[in-house]
C-alpha cells in the first residue's frame, strides 16, 4: 500500500521504450530522428511508491525519516537521473537494471550511474523491509543461511559487523553468488550495488547517514540491530531467493516460490 504523498511519476516507474537485448552500449542504439523526437515521452523514470504507508515502520523507522529519505533523497536521485537522460537519448529505453549495468561501464562509471544505481538501491531497500519484520527467516531461507554461514547467529553477527565496519557511506547486501552457488554478505561504497558483479541481491541495508540520523543520530549499531530485529523482510528474501533458483542451482534446500 503506498503513501498518500503526491507522486506525479507514480505510473512511470520504468521507461516506456523496451526491446534492449544486451547490457552494452552499441552503435545500433541510434538517436531518434527529428520527427520521432517531437513526439517522444520525456518522463523517463518515476519515483515508485513505498510498499507500505510512510508511518507503517514506526517506531523503528519514523514517518519523518521516510518523508526525508524517500520523499526528498530518493526523489532527488530520480530527478537527477532524468535530467541526465534528457541531455542525450542514447540510454532511453533501458530497464533500470540494465541502466545500472551499462552506466557502471566496467568500473568506469558514466555520469548517469550514481543516480541510476541509487534509484535502484532505494527501491530495493524499501522492499527489504516490512511492518512486523525482523526475527528469523523460515522455511528454506533459514536452511540456506545455516548451510552457507554455519548458523543464523553467525550470519547475523557477520551482517552487523559488515555494516558497522563499512567505511563512509554505502550499502550492505545479502546476495547469491552465481559462480560459487552460495549466499554471501558484501559491502559496497556510495551507489555501487551487486548487479554490477552479476550477483543476485536478496536483502539490502542502507548505510548512508540520511537513512538513520533522524531516528538514531550517530548510533549506527542501534540502527543496524533494529533493522535485523524489527524491520528486515524475510518474506521478501524468500521470494527473491525463489526467483534466484531459476538462474542458480543452490542444491538443497529448495526455496518455495510464493
Uncertain residue ranges: 1-41
Portion of residues in helices? Answer: 40-55%
Largest sheet: 3 strands, antiparallel
- Radius of gyration, CA atoms, in whole angstroms: 19 Å
Structural class: mainly alpha
H and E string = HHHHHHEEEHHH
Our measurement of the CA-to-CA distance between the termini, rounded to an integer number of angstroms, reads 19 Å
Strand content: 5-15%
What's the mean pLDDT score? 84
Number of strand elements: 3
Q: Give the assembly state of these chains.
A: single chain
Strand order of the largest sheet: 2-1-3
Tally of contiguous helical segments? 9
Which descriptor suits the 3D outline? globular
Structural description of this entry:
- This protein is mainly alpha-helical and 258 residues long.
- It has nine helices and three strands.
- The chain has helices spanning 34-38, 63-87, 96-104, 113-126, 139-149, 152-165, 213-216, 220-231, 234-244; strands at 170-177, 182-189, 200-206.
- The protein has a three-stranded antiparallel sheet, sandwiched between helices.
- A hairpin with a 4-residue loop joins β1 and β2.
- It is globular, with a radius of gyration of 19 Å.
- The two termini are 19 Å apart.
- The model is unreliable at 1-41 (pLDDT under 50).
Amino acid at each position: 500500500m503506498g503513501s498518500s504523498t503526491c507522486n506525479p511519476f507514480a505510473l512511470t516507474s520504468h521507461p516506456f521504450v523496451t526491446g534492449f537485448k544486451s547490457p552494452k552500449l552499441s552503435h545500433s542504439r541510434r538517436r531518434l530522428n527529428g520527427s520521432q523526437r517531437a513526439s517522444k515521452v520525456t518522463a523517463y523514470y518515476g519515483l515508485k511508491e513505498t510498499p507500505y504507508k510512510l508511518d507503517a515502520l514506526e517506531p523503528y523507522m519514523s514517518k519523518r525519516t521516510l518523508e526525508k529519505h524517500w520523499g526528498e533523497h530518493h526523489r532527488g536521485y530520480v530527478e537527477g537521473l532524468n535530467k541526465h537522460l534528457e541531455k542525450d537519448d542514447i540510454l532511453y529505453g533501458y530497464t533500470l537494471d540494465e541502466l545500472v549495468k551499462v552506466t557502471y561501464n566496467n568500473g568506469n562509471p558514466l555520469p548517469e550511474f550514481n543516480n541510476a544505481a541509487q534509484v535502484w538501491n532505494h527501491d530495493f531497500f524499501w522492499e527489504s523491509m516490512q511492518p512486523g519484520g525482523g526475527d528469523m527467516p523460515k522455511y528454506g531461507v533459514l536452511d540456506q543461511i545455516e548451510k552457507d554461514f554455519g548458523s543464523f547467529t553467525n550470519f547475523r553477527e557477520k551482517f552487523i559487523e559488515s555494516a558497522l565496519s563499512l567505511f563512509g557511506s554505502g550499502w550492505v547486501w545479502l546476495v547469491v553468488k552465481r559462480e560459487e552457488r552460495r549466499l554471501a554478505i558484501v559491502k559496497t561504497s556510495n551507489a555501487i550495488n551487486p548487479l554490477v558483479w552479476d550477483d543476485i541481491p536478496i536483502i539490502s541495508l542502507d548505510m548512508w547517514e540520511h537513512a538513520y540520523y533522524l531516528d538514531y543520530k550517530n548510533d549506527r549499531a542501534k540502527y543496524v540491530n533494529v533493522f535485523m530485529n524489527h524491520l528486515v523482510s524475510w518474506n521478501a528474501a524468500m521470494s527473491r531467493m525463489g526467483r534466484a533458483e531459476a538462474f542458480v542451482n543452490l542444491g538443497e534446500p529448495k526455496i518455495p516460490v510464493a
